[in-house]
Specification:
Elements: H1 3-20, H2 41-55, H3 70-83
Helix pairs in contact: 1-2, 1-3
Length: 91
């Protein structure tokens, strides 16, 4: 895992746990947002908004096809950050 993805992962994991009201231990890179973590459309919208604020990227116009796991979300954020101005993670 590269440094950027590692940083994103460390911040995204507890965010997912909080938004989806699941234990942190349930949030792994292969955890499916809907099937495994029970996310509904409101959870997904809240996760998008919180991720945008935390990581300084816009997920609204991003191609989210194929994004179904927490790892996919981390990868998407890393890709978006690589194409935009880098912004420090909010801690």
């Amino acid at each position: 895992m590269d440094v950027e993805r590692g940083d994103v992962w460390e911040a995204l994991r507890p965010l997912c746990a909080r938004v989806m009201s699941v234990p942190l231990e349930a949030v792994g890179p292969r955890a499916r947002l809907v099937a495994d973590l029970g996310a509904d459309s409101l959870d997904i919208t809240e996760l998008e908004a919180a991720s945008e604020e935390m990581f300084g990227v816009s997920l609204k116009r991003a191609d989210k096809s194929g994004v179904s796991t927490v790892g996919d979300v981390a990868d998407l954020i890393v890709r978006l950050r690589a194409h935009g101005a880098p912004s420090p993670l909010a801690r």
